[in-house]
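HUMAN: Ready with one sample?

ASSISTANT:
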Amino acid sequence: KRAHIEFGPTAQFVRNVGIVIECCECNKWRVLYSKSKLSPFEVSILERYLDTIQYTCGDSFEALVENVEQNESNINGDENSEHDYVGEIFKKVKVDDGLICNNPTEISYYSSGLFEEICFQCGKVPEDECDESDRPNLNEGFYYYCDECHTTVSSKKKRGKNTKFQVSKRSRK
């Protein structure tokens, strides 16, 4: 399943990147992983590049690297083009290409502590007017489920005891 990640998808590897990518088909956020921490320069280039593509669950960044390299050979640009850096960054940054649109949000999305709380099943952001005390699943030790998923999902996923959600709303970019 995780043949292309090449390492376990831990919260620390999520924090090394600090970015998630949205699937253009199911609108779920998927976590990016790296064994080494990206520099602010690398994060900036990665964010700009991700804004130019349409990601779909199951895509691998290896395929994106091949596309970048093909585009590089077609561009007579300068040697310091961002495309040069994107290929190098994608050698370090991975996405779980074993996930499909039907899969829920990855546990590491929450355990990293970087991102705001979203519905575990469908990825919806909680409505602001909804008081947290009105969300029974939070108080019962489960991940957050929106009203619709709370009703339709019969086997809800329990949180680990130390799982804390980000209070400030950091951008999912």
Remarks:
- Residues 145 and 154 are 11 Å apart (CA to CA).
- Residues 11-95 form one domain.
- The chain has two domains: 11-95, 117-166.
